[in-house]
Write a structure and sequence with these properties.
The protein contains 12 helices and 17 strands. With about 400 residues, the chain is an alpha+beta fold. The chain has a 5-stranded antiparallel beta sheet. Strands 1-2-6-3 form a 4-stranded antiparallel beta sheet, with helices on one face. The two termini are about 30 Å apart.
Length: about 400
């Protein structure tokens, strides 16, 4: 089973990811991971931390001569800011001095519920791990998953749909690869240049006011064969698994698949995707991988590529809403956990908007979940074996 664990604190020595279940024979290098780590650190409205960290991965196990071994892959990302925090975050020694102690919880953060749960009077023990800095470790895991999916013609794209009420309305038939390319050229990862300008002005106004802003992003997976996931148990449904993976990203408050919340206001005749058979309009790839010529297809994709908990052969579409960054330069009121006195919440360092970065993180977690479902269906211990299994399934589909 493909799985991963992350460890590390925001201002600790490093972040560590261990990926288990990656098959042998997958070509991978640090550049494949560093590329996405750099993308995660971009975006208009980011704070001072991004000027300190320049994330690079150190692959310490599981890869030899540029190819996976089938054993666990260990990925280490050093925190350059550790030098400024090694006294406060020392692994050994006595208690942290008053300068590093946190007793004032910030509204919207994990500080207070974490302190109550773990019975700690210094909330730095909570905020260091709950920080979105942890997502760098998940992006590293997702980069490996993308490499695996790419071997089978499956691609993962993302872009920003909306920030602060300024929205990009995409044409549903637009090529995801084209939209992705346009998004990569935008400072806010929006495919529309005019909307990008309006979003930047919105972020600037909020920054001057000491406020923050959230938004919505979209992840689209192309080249997905039908049959990933399953209807037979609740925890095997692909849409449920994707929703959990995206919801687990810090500050995400809503996830939808396909038409999402819109289906609650439309009649069934406008929601369900009619089924056809023949040459689908979006079939551009020939050869051993999906899609293969004549097949069952839909002309609409309100289901977001998933029906009954299983992929149906269309693009998988996941959308999520990120709340505004809760650390504000215009402080909100809170209560000190020691003195029980009220105060205005302080700022350590904060972004105004992190929605573009969150879209990159979402690519990673969606890619990993798709790779996990893919290996469950076509499992094998090597890439060569998985390709053999997959080709057999495609032959079955072609004659169905």
């Amino acid at each position: 089973m493909l799985r991963y664990l992350t460890s590390g604190e925001s201002h600790g020595k490093s972040l560590v990811t261990i990926v288990e279940g990656m098959p042998s024979g997958l070509g991978v290098g640090a550049d494949d991971i560093d590329r996405d780590l750099a993308r995660r650190q971009g975006g208009y409205g980011r704070g001072g931390r991004q000027s300190i960290e320049r994330d690079k991965v150190d692959i310490t196990s599981g890869v030899r001569h540029g190819s996976t071994l089938g054993s666990p892959v260990s990925l280490v990302i050093r925190n350059r800011d550790w030098e400024n925090w090694k006294g406060v975050m020392a692994v050994e020694g006595g208690r942290a001095g008053s300068a590093g102690r946190v007793t004032r919880p910030r509204p919207g953060h994990a500080d207070l519920p974490g302190a109550l749960k773990y019975s700690c009077r210094d909330m730095r023990n909570i905020l260091e791990r709950s920080s979105a800095r942890e997502t760098a470790a998940r992006v590293a895991a997702g980069a490996l998953a993308k490499r695996l999916l790419d071997e089978f013609g499956i691609r993962v794209f993302s872009w920003v749909v909306e920030i602060g009420g300024v929205r990009f309305n995409r044409d549903e038939v637009a090529d995801p690869e084209v939209l992705f390319g346009l998004a990569e050229e935008s400072e806010v990862r929006c495919p529309d240049a005019a909307v990008t300008g309006r979003i930047k002005r919105r972020i600037d106004r909020l920054a001057k006011a000491g406020d923050s802003i959230g938004g919505v992003f979209e992840v689209v997976v192309t080249g997905v064969p039908p049959g990933l996931g399953s209807h037979v148990q609740w925890d095997r449904k692909l849409d449920a698994r994707l929703a959990m993976s995206v919801m687990s990203i810090q500050a995400i408050k809503a996830v939808e698949i396909g038409a999402g919340f819109m289906v609650g206001s439309l009649p069934g005749s406008k929601v369900h995707d009619e089924i056809f058979y023949g040459e689908a309009a979006d079939t551009r790839r020939e050869g051993p991988y999906w899609p293969l010529g004549r097949r069952f297809y839909r002309r609409t994709n309100n289901a977001g590529g998933i029906e009954g908990g299983m992929s149906n052969g269309e693009h998988v579409v996941v959308r999520a809403a990120m709340k505004p960054i809760p650390t504000l330069y215009k402080p909100l009121r809170s209560v000190d956990i020691v003195t029980k006195e009220g105060f205005e919440a302080s700022v350590e360092r904060s972004d105004v908007c992190a929605v573009p970065a969150a879209s990159v993180v979402a690519e990673a977690v969606v890619a990993f979940e798709m790779a996990r479902a893919f290996l469950e269906k076509f499992g094998g211990d090597s890439v060569r074996e998985i390709k053999r299994n997959y080709k057999g399934y495609l032959r079955q589909l072609k004659t169905f």
